[in-house]
TrEMBL record:
GO cellular component: mitochondrion; nucleus
Keywords: Metal-binding, Mitochondrion, NAD, Transferase, Zinc
Name of the protein described by the UniProt record: NAD-dependent protein deacylase
Primary residence: mitochondrion
Membrane among keywords: no
EC assignment: 2.3.1.-
Molecular function as annotated in GO: histone deacetylase activity, NAD-dependent; NAD+ binding; protein-malonyllysine demalonylase activity; protein-succinyllysine desuccinylase activity; zinc ion binding
Domain Deacetylase sirtuin-type: 1-286
Active site per UniProt: H136
Length: 286
């Protein structure tokens, strides 16, 4: 499929859309300083970062995996939403959505676990509940491996033994099991509340219905390699919808794109959605 980079043509399609879904990946948070699994060759210290995001890796070496997620938590805690997050959040404000797509409904499906899209929605529209699905869970949730209790936890650090480990670059640190994050209900070992490789993403039935109904998909900052999210653009295109890809570089999802906007998402999204390239135009409004 030949893709267009004509912003005015895209905005014409946007204006006529009825059901818009945005499918966001790690590239959306890049401008906020959140590293992806593929940054620095896909390594954290000397380990393949993707290999640490599995249940098997956690139960084999919970100390190592908790240090990896502590590093990610500390990065996310200090990050703020960028103009790309804000532009998508602005679509959840009825007045803003009506200005660019008068009769549309908007839903964001994010693969990111950093919570920045939630922060953006809270900043832009604190009085409304956003149409937002965090399909891969939340970095700041914890799940007890014994009793299953799930809680939000924004402590920094989440436990004393992890203090400063985010600064370690190469040396392996072995934290005793009893010093790792523990459940307040039963003292069981906690795990990060994210969906690991091999686990089932959240709310797939609801997301599937939204994708089925969508006549416009915004694919934002994703390499289109992790399923089921990687297949959503194809599904929208297959039932006659339009697909617009926003990415820093070419990806596997480009073949399904009617529109392709290459460049940093925090620059391309505000420009394509609102005709501007500044955060101010997508600033918080109630």
């Amino acid at each position: 499929m030949a893709s267009s980079k004509d912003i005015e043509q895209f905005r014409s399609v946007l204006r006529k859309s009825k059901n818009i879904v945005a499918i966001a990946g790690a590239g959306l948070s890049a401008a906020s300083g959140i590293p992806t699994f593929r940054d620095a060759g896909g390594l954290w210290r000397t380990h393949d970062a993707m290999s640490l995001a599995t249940p098997e890796a956690f139960f084999e070496n919970p100390s190592r995996v908790w240090q990896f997620y502590h590093y990610r938590r500390e990065k996310a805690l200090r990050a703020t939403p960028n103009a790309g997050h804000i532009a998508l959040a602005a679509l959840s404000v009825p007045e803003r959505l009506e200005a660019v797509a008068p009769t549309a409904r908007f839903t964001l499906v994010t693969q990111n676990v950093d919570g920045l899209s939630v922060k953006a929605f809270q900043n832009v529209c604190p009085s409304r509940e956003p149409e937002l699905f965090e399909m891969h869970g939340r970095l700041f949730d914890t799940i007890c491996t014994d009793c299953g209790d799930c809680k939000a936890n924004f402590d920094s650090p989440i436990c004393p033994a992890l203090t400063g480990t985010e600064e370690q670059l190469g040396n392996e640190i072995e934290i005793p099991l009893e010093d790792l994050p523990r459940c307040q209900e039963c003292t069981g070992l906690l795990r990060p509340g994210v969906v690991w490789f091999g686990e089932v993403p959240h709310q797939l039935e609801e997301i599937g219905q939204i994708v089925d109904d969508a006549d416009l998909a915004l694919v934002v900052g994703t390499s289109s390699t992790v399923y089921p999210a990687a297949g959503y653009a194809y599904e929208v295109a297959d039932h006659g919808g339009t697909v617009a890809v926003f990415n820093i570089q070419h990806s596997e999802g480009d073949e399904d794109a009617h529109f392709l906007f290459l460049g940093p998402c925090h620059e391309t999204l505000p420009l394509a959605l609102f005709g501007i390239n500044a955060e101010s135009e997508a600033s918080p409004q109630n």
